[in-house]
């Protein structure tokens, strides 16, 4: 039984956020697992496929289909992460989880974020100019 009213995260929403952060950390650990030479080849291959699918804009079930569209995000990705992590030797997994924890605590670059926002705005302005020229 899951208790939602305990700990630093309160309620269902807090529980979902905590699980989301944990899944994100595990996916990052899986990325490190896929790059670690101590991992068996079949576990590396599965880890690479799961990470690629999780980051891919293409889904097995498109997100615009009501209810079923998010099935892969809620079931397939966590299940793939869990299966891939079961195939990894415990020492390698502990090392990769520690690296993922350090990487997830690293501060976010505000300058990098501002640069990317400027790049997207420049692309949007270019698209507006090209569309305007094509129509007029």
H/I helix tally: 5
Determine the N-to-C terminus distance: 63 Å
Q: Evaluate the radius of gyration.
A: 20 Å
Q: How many structural units, i.e. domains?
A: 2
* Number of β-strand runs: 0
Question: Which structural traits does this protein have?
Answer:
136 residues, mainly alpha, 2 domains, extended
What's the topology here?
Layout: H1 11-35, H2 41-55, H3 71-86, H4 90-105, H5 110-135
Helix pairs in contact: 1-2, 1-3, 1-4, 2-3
Describe this structure in words.
The protein has helices at 11-35, 41-55, 71-86, 90-105, 110-135. The protein is mainly α and 136 residues long. The mean pLDDT is 82.
In short:
This protein has 136 residues and is mainly α. It is built from five helices and no strands. Helix content is 72%, strand content 0%.
